[in-house]
Design a protein that fits this description.
Two copies of one chain form a homodimer. Chain A has four helices and five strands. The first copy, chain A, is α/β, with parallel strands linked by helices. The termini of chain A are far apart. Chains A, B: This is Cobalamin (Vitamin B12) biosynthesis CbiX protein.
Amino acid sequence: MKGLLIVGHGSEKSHYAKVMEIHKERIEKMGIFDEVEICYVARNRKPTPDEAVRKMKSDEIYVVPILISKGIHFTEDLPAFFNFKPGQREGVFDGKRIVICDPIGEDRFVTLAIINAVFKLLE
Amino acid sequence: MKGLLIVGHGSEKSHYAKVMEIHKERIEKMGIFDEVEICYVARNRKPTPDEAVRKMKSDEIYVVPILISKGIHFTEDLPAFFNFKPGQREGVFDGKRIVICDPIGEDRFVTLAIINAVFKLLE
């Protein structure tokens, strides 16, 4: 089984969690992954990445941070949840193979999302 | 003249500014806008949105936040830089028409960026 774990920063405002749910539901419908879950990397936000992985059934989990850049949350905080060293991108946690993907920030689809924000106003 | 102002949260790590530059350069090459500039909404990050607008020559500026959700940075901090009320999305600042677009978070292109982060590993 292949799983996707979407990692957000998290926010006190409920809209952030709603946005995470929107992406989860869209990707579930596409059927690329056997399961899609959500977690948060900022302090005190739940579920944490390790909690999410423990609840997942997949033996291979792709972890995708909805973060703009490779900051501390990406290089240190996220790996630490899986007992990885800073910068470590692959390993085993809770008996599952964990692969940490690049944060989405540089992706060309993000460039298109920026332009689309303007197109939406012109419709 | 139509301008695009990309608003990031900002980070102490230099990679964040690099990601902003990547999007700016890609969008400049597309020629949709007469000018493309960058600014930051988090405390003490430079340039601030108002500083960026003052340097721009466009009479119409579309402001696009690279933020996931409609949190405090979007609803209160960003409008305040233009002397707008909380939640205000359009107005005039420095003699220019300012239009604040939705944050990119919910966009379908962001969903695709999440999936693409995994595809990139499989290449």
